[in-house]
Design goal:
14 strands, 4-stranded antiparallel beta sheet, 219 residues, alpha/beta
Length: 219
Amino acid sequence: MLVILAGGEINNYQELKKVTLQADYIICADGGARHAYRMKVIPDVIIGDMDSLNPAILDYFKNKDIEIIRYPSEKDEVDTELAIRQGIKLGFKEMILLGATGGRLDHTLANIHLLIKAAQLATQVKIVDEHHRLYLVTPQLATEINGVPGQIVSLIPLTEKVKGVYTQGLKWELHNGTFAVGNPFGVSNQLTSNQARIKISEGILLVIEIISEEKQSGS
Protein backbone atom coordinates (compact mmCIF):
# COMPACT_ATOMS: atom_id res chain seq x y z
CA MET A 1 0.00 0.00 0.00
CA LEU A 2 1.22 3.47 -0.93
CA VAL A 3 0.88 6.54 1.28
CA ILE A 4 1.08 10.03 -0.21
CA LEU A 5 1.68 13.04 2.03
CA ALA A 6 0.21 16.20 0.50
CA GLY A 7 0.64 19.76 1.73
CA GLY A 8 -2.76 20.36 3.37
CA GLU A 9 -3.52 20.39 7.08
CA ILE A 10 -2.52 17.66 9.50
CA ASN A 11 -3.28 18.47 13.12
CA ASN A 12 -2.74 15.10 14.79
CA TYR A 13 0.64 13.78 13.70
CA GLN A 14 0.62 10.99 16.26
CA GLU A 15 -2.62 9.51 14.87
CA LEU A 16 -1.82 9.79 11.18
CA LYS A 17 1.74 8.56 11.59
CA LYS A 18 0.13 5.18 12.34
CA VAL A 19 -1.09 5.15 8.73
CA THR A 20 2.42 5.71 7.38
CA LEU A 21 3.72 2.78 9.42
CA GLN A 22 1.52 0.46 7.34
CA ALA A 23 2.92 1.75 4.05
CA ASP A 24 5.08 -0.20 1.64
CA TYR A 25 6.11 3.05 -0.03
CA ILE A 26 5.78 6.76 0.86
CA ILE A 27 5.68 9.69 -1.55
CA CYS A 28 5.71 13.33 -0.42
CA ALA A 29 4.02 15.78 -2.76
CA ASP A 30 6.08 18.96 -2.40
CA GLY A 31 5.01 20.62 0.88
CA GLY A 32 3.88 17.25 2.20
CA ALA A 33 7.53 16.68 3.06
CA ARG A 34 7.14 19.04 6.01
CA HIS A 35 4.62 16.59 7.48
CA ALA A 36 7.08 13.73 7.01
CA TYR A 37 9.75 15.82 8.71
CA ARG A 38 7.52 16.59 11.69
CA MET A 39 6.39 12.95 11.98
CA LYS A 40 10.00 11.76 11.73
CA VAL A 41 8.98 9.68 8.72
CA ILE A 42 11.47 9.02 5.92
CA PRO A 43 9.76 9.01 2.49
CA ASP A 44 10.95 7.07 -0.53
CA VAL A 45 10.62 10.05 -2.85
CA ILE A 46 9.66 13.74 -2.84
CA ILE A 47 7.98 14.99 -6.00
CA GLY A 48 6.80 18.40 -7.19
CA ASP A 49 8.02 21.88 -8.06
CA MET A 50 9.23 22.47 -4.46
CA ASP A 51 7.64 25.91 -4.33
CA SER A 52 5.95 25.32 -0.97
CA LEU A 53 8.71 23.39 0.81
CA ASN A 54 11.15 24.98 3.23
CA PRO A 55 14.63 24.64 1.64
CA ALA A 56 16.04 23.48 4.97
CA ILE A 57 13.63 20.53 5.04
CA LEU A 58 14.47 19.71 1.43
CA ASP A 59 18.18 19.75 2.31
CA TYR A 60 17.49 17.51 5.31
CA PHE A 61 16.01 14.82 3.06
CA LYS A 62 18.67 15.32 0.39
CA ASN A 63 21.29 14.57 3.03
CA LYS A 64 19.47 11.30 3.69
CA ASP A 65 19.75 10.42 -0.02
CA ILE A 66 15.99 10.60 -0.58
CA GLU A 67 15.08 10.70 -4.27
CA ILE A 68 13.90 14.14 -5.39
CA ILE A 69 11.84 14.43 -8.58
CA ARG A 70 11.59 18.12 -9.42
CA TYR A 71 9.10 19.56 -11.92
CA PRO A 72 8.91 23.12 -13.28
CA SER A 73 6.44 25.41 -11.55
CA GLU A 74 4.69 26.04 -14.88
CA LYS A 75 2.92 22.70 -15.38
CA ASP A 76 -0.55 21.29 -16.01
CA GLU A 77 -0.65 18.94 -13.00
CA VAL A 78 -0.78 19.83 -9.32
CA ASP A 79 1.89 18.19 -7.16
CA THR A 80 -0.52 15.70 -5.62
CA GLU A 81 -1.52 14.47 -9.07
CA LEU A 82 2.15 13.97 -9.90
CA ALA A 83 2.48 11.85 -6.76
CA ILE A 84 -0.56 9.73 -7.69
CA ARG A 85 0.78 9.25 -11.22
CA GLN A 86 4.14 8.19 -9.80
CA GLY A 87 2.38 5.65 -7.59
CA ILE A 88 0.46 4.24 -10.56
CA LYS A 89 3.72 4.08 -12.53
CA LEU A 90 5.16 1.99 -9.70
CA GLY A 91 2.21 -0.41 -9.92
CA PHE A 92 0.23 0.53 -6.81
CA LYS A 93 -3.55 0.02 -7.06
CA GLU A 94 -4.38 1.20 -3.53
CA MET A 95 -3.22 4.51 -2.08
CA ILE A 96 -3.94 6.59 1.00
CA LEU A 97 -3.67 10.36 0.71
CA LEU A 98 -2.85 12.31 3.88
CA GLY A 99 -2.71 16.10 4.18
CA ALA A 100 -5.31 16.52 1.43
CA THR A 101 -8.00 18.40 3.37
CA GLY A 102 -8.29 21.49 5.57
CA GLY A 103 -6.97 24.95 4.84
CA ARG A 104 -7.91 26.07 1.33
CA LEU A 105 -11.24 24.69 0.12
CA ASP A 106 -10.10 24.80 -3.51
CA HIS A 107 -7.24 22.43 -2.71
CA THR A 108 -9.58 20.04 -0.89
CA LEU A 109 -12.03 19.99 -3.82
CA ALA A 110 -9.19 19.54 -6.30
CA ASN A 111 -7.92 16.55 -4.32
CA ILE A 112 -11.40 14.99 -4.33
CA HIS A 113 -11.42 15.34 -8.12
CA LEU A 114 -8.07 13.59 -8.28
CA LEU A 115 -9.84 10.53 -6.87
CA ILE A 116 -11.84 10.45 -10.10
CA LYS A 117 -8.73 10.51 -12.26
CA ALA A 118 -7.23 7.67 -10.22
CA ALA A 119 -10.44 5.62 -10.44
CA GLN A 120 -10.40 6.00 -14.22
CA LEU A 121 -7.01 4.27 -14.07
CA ALA A 122 -8.43 1.43 -11.92
CA THR A 123 -6.74 2.77 -8.79
CA GLN A 124 -8.48 3.31 -5.45
CA VAL A 125 -7.22 6.37 -3.59
CA LYS A 126 -8.59 7.19 -0.15
CA ILE A 127 -8.27 10.61 1.46
CA VAL A 128 -7.82 10.21 5.20
CA ASP A 129 -7.64 12.90 7.88
CA GLU A 130 -8.27 12.96 11.61
CA HIS A 131 -12.05 13.03 11.15
CA HIS A 132 -12.88 11.55 7.74
CA ARG A 133 -12.23 8.88 5.16
CA LEU A 134 -13.19 9.86 1.60
CA TYR A 135 -13.19 7.57 -1.42
CA LEU A 136 -15.17 6.68 -4.52
CA VAL A 137 -17.55 3.95 -5.53
CA THR A 138 -17.80 3.29 -9.28
CA PRO A 139 -19.27 0.39 -11.25
CA GLN A 140 -15.78 -1.14 -11.16
CA LEU A 141 -15.00 -0.19 -7.54
CA ALA A 142 -17.56 -1.39 -4.98
CA THR A 143 -16.71 -0.88 -1.33
CA GLU A 144 -17.01 -2.50 2.07
CA ILE A 145 -17.12 -0.24 5.12
CA ASN A 146 -15.81 -1.45 8.45
CA GLY A 147 -16.85 0.69 11.38
CA VAL A 148 -19.14 0.78 14.39
CA PRO A 149 -22.94 0.98 14.67
CA GLY A 150 -24.11 4.58 14.55
CA GLN A 151 -21.10 5.81 12.62
CA ILE A 152 -22.09 8.44 10.07
CA VAL A 153 -21.60 7.73 6.37
CA SER A 154 -22.57 10.22 3.67
CA LEU A 155 -23.02 9.40 -0.01
CA ILE A 156 -22.59 12.27 -2.49
CA PRO A 157 -22.98 11.99 -6.30
CA LEU A 158 -20.08 13.36 -8.33
CA THR A 159 -21.75 12.77 -11.68
CA GLU A 160 -25.10 14.14 -12.86
CA LYS A 161 -26.71 10.78 -12.09
CA VAL A 162 -25.58 7.80 -10.02
CA LYS A 163 -27.78 4.80 -10.77
CA GLY A 164 -28.23 1.28 -9.52
CA VAL A 165 -27.21 2.15 -5.96
CA TYR A 166 -27.35 -0.80 -3.57
CA THR A 167 -26.43 -0.45 0.09
CA GLN A 168 -26.43 -3.02 2.86
CA GLY A 169 -25.75 -2.38 6.54
CA LEU A 170 -26.89 1.25 6.55
CA LYS A 171 -29.90 2.67 8.42
CA TRP A 172 -31.50 3.87 5.17
CA GLU A 173 -30.80 1.13 2.69
CA LEU A 174 -31.11 1.52 -1.05
CA HIS A 175 -32.02 -1.09 -3.65
CA ASN A 176 -31.50 0.12 -7.20
CA GLY A 177 -31.57 3.72 -5.98
CA THR A 178 -30.62 6.85 -7.93
CA PHE A 179 -28.70 9.92 -6.79
CA ALA A 180 -28.69 13.24 -8.65
CA VAL A 181 -26.44 16.28 -8.33
CA GLY A 182 -28.22 19.01 -6.36
CA ASN A 183 -30.24 16.57 -4.24
CA PRO A 184 -27.93 15.47 -1.40
CA PHE A 185 -30.32 13.10 0.38
CA GLY A 186 -27.46 10.67 1.04
CA VAL A 187 -25.96 12.84 3.79
CA SER A 188 -25.77 11.51 7.37
CA ASN A 189 -26.71 7.89 6.88
CA GLN A 190 -25.54 5.52 9.64
CA LEU A 191 -24.02 2.09 10.02
CA THR A 192 -26.36 -0.42 11.65
CA SER A 193 -23.60 -2.96 12.27
CA ASN A 194 -19.82 -3.22 12.05
CA GLN A 195 -19.89 -3.61 8.31
CA ALA A 196 -21.70 -2.15 5.30
CA ARG A 197 -21.50 -2.61 1.54
CA ILE A 198 -22.11 -0.19 -1.30
CA LYS A 199 -22.17 -0.80 -5.05
CA ILE A 200 -23.51 1.09 -8.06
CA SER A 201 -24.12 0.36 -11.74
CA GLU A 202 -23.55 3.81 -13.24
CA GLY A 203 -21.79 7.06 -12.31
CA ILE A 204 -19.38 8.06 -9.57
CA LEU A 205 -20.35 8.18 -5.88
CA LEU A 206 -18.29 9.86 -3.16
CA VAL A 207 -18.33 8.10 0.21
CA ILE A 208 -17.48 10.14 3.30
CA GLU A 209 -17.03 8.22 6.53
CA ILE A 210 -17.05 10.30 9.71
CA ILE A 211 -14.49 8.63 11.97
CA SER A 212 -14.37 11.19 14.79
CA GLU A 213 -17.31 12.28 16.94
CA GLU A 214 -15.93 15.85 16.99
CA LYS A 215 -17.32 16.34 13.48
CA GLN A 216 -20.62 14.47 13.86
CA SER A 217 -22.88 17.47 14.24
CA GLY A 218 -24.20 19.50 11.35
CA SER A 219 -27.22 21.15 9.78
